[in-house]
Amino acid sequence: MKNKKIQIIRKKLDKLDNIFLSLIKKRTNLVNQVLANKKYKREIVDKKRIKVILKNIHKKSKLKKIDPKITNSIWKSMIRAFIQYEYRNFKKK
């Protein structure tokens, strides 16, 4: 039988994952609004914006005592996933 404490902690992780899913849905809605305002495919990747986001996340992670390597990896993955999403959903006007 699995450790009872681990089971309890995993239930909390599952609840947190549901919150993450809700936040990803909200983020997707905002990305859709941005995408609707882009005229050209070349506007999808904004390297300056990505740099600023990653720098801010790094700073905030340190302030909140979160390992910046974790947040950097998560944000890079999320940004990559949303860029792919934008390319799939881009409509020429």
Overview of the structural elements:
This protein is mostly helical. It has a single domain, classed as Up-down Bundle (Chorismate Mutase Domain, subunit A), CATH 1.20.59. Helices cover 77% and strands 0% of the residues. It has three helices and no strands. The protein has helices spanning 4-36, 47-63, 68-89. Helix 2 packs antiparallel against helix 3. The chain starts with a helix and ends with a helix. The relative contact order is 0.11. The mean pLDDT is 95.
Strand content: under 5%
Look at the helices and sheets and give the structural class.
Answer: mainly alpha
Largest pleated sheet: none
| CATH fold type | Chorismate Mutase Domain, subunit A
The residue ranges in which pLDDT falls below 50 over 5 or more consecutive positions are none
CATH class: Mainly Alpha
End-to-end gap: 59 Å
Number of alpha- plus pi-helical segments:
3
The coarse silhouette is extended
Helix share bin: over 70%
Number of domains: 1
Average pLDDT number: 95
Order of helices and strands: HHH
Reported CATH architecture: Up-down Bundle
Question: What's this entry about, in short?
Answer:
By secondary structure, this protein is an all-alpha fold. The protein has helices spanning 4-36, 47-63, 68-89. The radius of gyration is 17 Å and the shape is extended.
Secondary-structure blueprint:
Elements: H1 4-36, H2 47-63, H3 68-89
